[in-house]
Amino acid sequence: MMTRWTPVVVLAAALVAAISLPMQAQDGEMVPPFGGAEDVAYAEAVWAAMDGYRDWKLHTDVYKGQSPHGSYLRLFSTFITVDGGTHPIIVKENYGGQGVSAEAATADPDQWLKAVTIMLQREDGYDSDNDNWFWVKFSPSGEILKNPKDMLLAGRVAKGMPKGCIACHTQAGGGDYLFSNDE
Ligand code: HEC
User: Which CATH number describes the domain made up of 32-175?
Assistant: First the structure.
């Protein structure tokens, strides 16, 4: 009798393994937490949905920022719809260069724009450890920029690592990953 059951048990074990492997991958344990094909596709959809962000009603003036985001900054915020889901997003324009000032970057942002960094809060479960934020660093024309290790800066950047968007924003006051609402 025992031997008749053995193949069933083996098959069941194989099935469990087959099911649990992709689930582990979704948890981010088997795939890098950022810079993968899905992150890139989602970031491209975000960039498309951000079109015209300079006209969003909620924005700051240009102000002098802290490192590492460039010497002058401007924030824009709204809700955008990406892949059928509507999410809050904060877009940060980062200006720099010899002679940059708040006045200059206000008058001609394109001349001084170095990068566009965004935080978009995704659906529950996307990254429960970190309030489900999706992070991207774009060039002024919407290319996804890379870190020195050649990884594309899109997704859970850089979850579990000592430096990067998540590590630094974890230190924001109030535990909400946002610096701009701190005192
Ligand atoms: C070493 C720390 C540090 C790292 C790394 C960092 N940031 Fe920030 N970030 C800040 C600080 C400080 C501010 C507040 C802006 C200011 O006034 O300078 C900020 C502000 C922002 C904001 C505006 C919302 C807010 O928190 O006020 C966005 C969006 C943003 N960062 C995106 C990113 C992205 C995307 C990355 C990774 C590619 C990143 N940041 C990496 C420190 C960091």
Answer: 3.50.70
